[in-house]
Amino acid sequence: MSQHTALLDELTWRELLFQHTDGLAAHLAQGPTAAYCGFDPTAPSLHVGNLVPVMGLVHLQRAGHKPIALVGGGTGMIGDPSGKNSERTLQSLDVIEENARLIGAQLERFLDFTGPYAARMSNNAEWLGSIGLLEFLRTTGKHFTVNYMLAKDSVKSRLDAGISYTEFTYMLLQAHDYAELHARHGVTLQIGGSDQWGNMTAGLELLRRTVGAEAHVLTCPLVTTASGQKFGKSEAGAVYLDAERTSPYRFYQFWLGADDRDVTRWLRFFTLLSREEITQLDQATSERPEQREAQRLLAADVTARVHGAAVLQTVEAISQVLFGKGDPRDLSAGTLREMSREVPFAEVDAPADGGAVDALDLVVATGLAKSRGDAKRLVEQGGVSVNGQRMSMAERTIASDAWLADRHLLVKKGSRDWGLVRVR
């Protein structure tokens, strides 16, 4: 097996291969293949479900092929009807351009843009934004019958509810992208989710009719959890790669919370660990599920790739403390500032006399108690700790030399409720 044909074997054992066109293995064996995957900029960030085709591009590059990440700055102005029950809301050009820029930056964290198989970023606004309607109809539209387009699932599923001419033509724009990338960069393979098969094969049809080129498509599966839930959803909604939409801590916790039934599959999907390493982690999950070795490695691997090693170190430190296995006094000022996004946070004025802070005030300020009376009862019951030290009514003040970095105090009520205070 050559390096280039190893791609299909790698994707198969990782369960990242759903279907592909006939003859793809032979095509890959001919040498380095230029392949692309498109990403829709209707939101300012990719979500974790998008990582499946992204990892497809990663494995393609590792097998000696040349990946192109295509951001749909042009197609984003129309909207893909695939998997949608109703018409998308059209966004402004400025919003789409900014979304495309942000998504492009996220994709750069996964692909190598140097060396003989250097990845390339592209934006279809470059050609779709300048093509005229009549030219598009003559060069692309004339090669597709209405019957051909009506047979596609993305269109058939919308016929009863209605589909606009705008979204009806989306597959033609995607086909035009394939032809354009073939002409510019010699692209002969497109990668995408399994719901994109109809749109992707339209590109093959256009290349066959216009230049007679051999071209292929490969799809990755749409992922669901073992419980049947759509992958990438948490209690707070979709899990995004952007730190402002999903904090790095919550991103890390999403992976850490993987079900034992899912974690081995997710290691195959979203990490570059070897088959042997994943097999060992699968065995560890079976024998020592309470240690969650696989989940911890999965969470660390994906978080570091998306947010960087320094951010991973921060969220791991937060997790250690919040789950009772770390010392709050070891937390840096930056880590505490990041923690303030995850637990109730308040600022209080320093005592006028420069003395100690009363724990009762901290409990009330963070909302862990409604009043000083409630806070007092919690302290009397032994239910309040500050900076890891259990409070009592007799010893409930915290002097400045016991404060955490940058004048912070970490409050805990019971076994799981937390609050963070910064003294101004």
CATH class of the largest domain: Alpha Beta
N-to-C span: 65 Å
Large-scale geometry: elongated
The percentage helix is 40-55%
- In the CATH hierarchy, the third-tier topology of the largest domain is known as Rossmann fold
Radius of gyration: 26 Å
Largest sheet: 6 strands, mixed
Q: What is the correct CATH architecture of the largest domain? A: 3-Layer(aba) Sandwich
Query: How many discrete structural domains?
Result: 3
Instruction: Please indicate the percent range of residues in DSSP E strands (runs of 2 or more).
Output: 5-15%
CATH superfamily of the largest domain, called what? HUPs
Q: Can you describe this structure?
A:
The model has no long low-confidence stretch (mean pLDDT 93). The protein is elongated. The strands form 4 sheets. Strands 1-6-5-2-3-4 form a 6-stranded mixed beta sheet, with helices on both faces. With 424 residues, it is α/β, with parallel strands linked by helices. The chain has helices at 6-13, 24-29, 51-62, 93-107, 125-128, 133-139, 146-150, 153-156, 165-168, 170-185, 197-210, 248-256, 260-270, 275-287, 293-307, 309-322, 333-339, 359-365, 372-380; strands at residues 19-20, 34-39, 66-71, 120-123, 187-193, 216-220, 233-234, 237-238, 345-348, 357-358, 384-386, 389-390, 397-398, 408-413, 417-423. Helix content is 42%, strand content 14%. The longest helix is centred in the middle third of the chain and has 16 residues, at 170-185. The relative contact order is 0.09. The protein has 3 domains: 6-220, HUPs (Rossmann fold, 3-Layer(aba) Sandwich), CATH 3.40.50.620; 233-307, Tyrosyl-Transfer RNA Synthetase; 339-423, Roll (Structural Genomics Hypothetical 15.5 Kd Protein In mrcA-pckA Intergenic Region, Chain A), CATH 3.10.290. Strand 7 (233-234) and strand 8 form a beta hairpin.
